[in-house]
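Technical note accompanying the year-one report. For the benefit of new consortium partners, we illustrate the data format agreed upon in the data management plan: each record pairs a sequence with a structure-token string. No post-processing was applied to the example shown here.
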Amino acid sequence: MTGIPPRGTVTSLRAPPKAIMLGRRGEHTVEHSQRLMAQGYLPFLVEQADAAMKKLRTEKIELLVMDVDVPEVGGVGFLETLRSDPAMHQLPVLVVSATDDVEALERCMEAGADDYLPRVFGPAMLSARVNAALDRRRSRDNEAMRKEMDVARNIQRDFLPESLPVIPRMEIDAALHPARQVSGDFYDAFQLAPSGNLMFVVGDVCDKGVGAALFMALFRSLIRASADPVGGGAISMIGGRRTLVLESLESATPGDLLTRVAGFTNNYIARLHGRTNMFATVFMAVIDPNYGYLTYLNAGHEPALVIAPDGSMQELRPTGPALGMMPDVPFTTVDLTLERGHTLFAFTDGMAEARNPSGEVFGAERVREMVREIVRGVAGAPASALVPKVVETMKSFGGQAEPHDDLTLLAATRL
């Protein structure tokens, strides 16, 4: 096995991609290696299948150019072994026949080669075949990634409520529109036992994409399990139906519940996952649907709004830092009353930070003006009218522009 260094002085700090030339040395071997070097590759000449496989498994190889008749195992046998290994399944492979054996080339193509080269080829043909093979691999990789992201999106959708609570004297609606295939936003709405109070949650994990989506699932699960230990199954793990812990939870005030949930979630993330520097801004509220008592905790999140039928509104500003930034930080709550006809409206910053095709930002003031106009124009705009109207307005503003951030809305109207 011999590495053939490129001629001349290498001025780039980036190491050239490695390629393996597998097969017996022939009259065109050196010429072929020079062609690969001219394409920017560092070729290694390998004659035996075992040696090639070892190098493929221990080094980062970007391209394999192999003879149709690999010593010991044959070209088809080598390709079948190569393609059965997940780590090498996507490696671009070109096959060469010293005799231009068409049947042998076809068998290798059927076994997993990406393309073939004639016995004698020039730099233009090599460049075209290498680029075509790489393009096909990228296309297959992109398709595989698209399918994986579809699976991830469906799994993430399962972390959101399948349905919203149907409660007398309350109307609830929600929407989540990810900027990408998966989202770092989340929301939740559920009834607490045995009080019958409703808990609402809207959160936004920092960053975007897959990393944010993974932490979205973690944050949402921690909040739900700690807020609803009976329904979440936590109580059954520590003693069954009736325990001192359960009695303590049942007697806790909404403020106690929210500070406990925020503290537990914050400390878990900060202590166990602090090295990731991931955190989430979260708005949580507990509402008594009978009397309208509302207690909220805002962990560094966009201020939620309490909207009156005439369009006037009250901002529910942060009462503590984002969850997961540092352990043992204090969280406080605020009590107020959600009057009949008034709506609690929580959302993520994807609304204020939305951009139109010319790059103009929607802005926080325009958010409030939009909500005010909707409420005044649709007979008080209860939750079921407010949420779709907001989504429609945001889509109209964004036009064909790519979404800048996820958009999540949760509204609850006391009837």
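Partners are asked to follow this layout when depositing records. Confidence is low (pLDDT under 50) at residues 1-12, 233-238.
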